[in-house]
Amino acid sequence: MRNEGAAMIDVTQAVRQLSRNAEAIRVLAGALPEEAANWSPAADIWSMKDVAEHLYNEERFDFRRHLKTMFGESPESRQHIELKSAREALDGFLLERAASMAWLRALESPDWGATIELQFGPNERFTFSAGDMLVSWVEHDNLHLRQMVELLHAWHEHVATPYSTKYAGEW
Asked: How many CB atoms lie within 10 A of CB 94?
């Protein structure tokens, strides 16, 4: 029996959003020359290259991998890869995102209620459903898109000196 109060996951919309996010990531990460992509406004803040490398590794070994496990597939082994350039990281991310989209579109009647228990730190374990994983995947993109816009803003202010961006409005 279907629970009339429960929201259904619109997989088509989630896949569409993941594809749109990939395009936005491509545009934002590609907006800077390599020198700027390696620049960071502070030692504890990622550069655009760091963000692109993170997205590449997450695309390969996080969301898709966990969903495959929940749906009974054997996932690839996990190994973080450090890349030489922001361009290499972005290109790798885009290839992996295309593979993710093809895989998601090919799923036939997946159980979005299937769960996985994941460990965060030595003593924290949480259970997530496949639905949680899918909507978190979209949100993960959103968080890094915001981070990328903030990096573009910081870079622009950095190179605008001695001029002021005040006329543009408050950040």
From this structure: 19
Q: How far apart are CA 135 and CA 18, in angstroms?
A: 10
Task: Determine the Cα–Cα distance for residues 58 and 51; give it in Å rounded to an integer.
Answer: 10
Say how far apart CA 107 and CA 101 lie, in whole Å.
10
The conformation of residue 71, written as its DSSP 8-state character, comes to T
Helices 11-29 and 130-160: crossing angle in degrees, nearest 10, is: 20
Look up tokens 């997989």; give the residue.
11
- pTM of the predicted model, to two decimals? 0.88
Tens-place pLDDT, residues 51-67? 999 999 999 989 999 99
Poorest-pLDDT segment among 81-85, 147-151, 152-156 = 81-85
At 7 the pLDDT is 60
C-alpha distances out from residue 47 to 43, 56, 120, Å: 9, 14, 25
Residue 6 DSSP symbol: S
Q: How far apart are CA 67 and CA 62, in angstroms?
A: 9
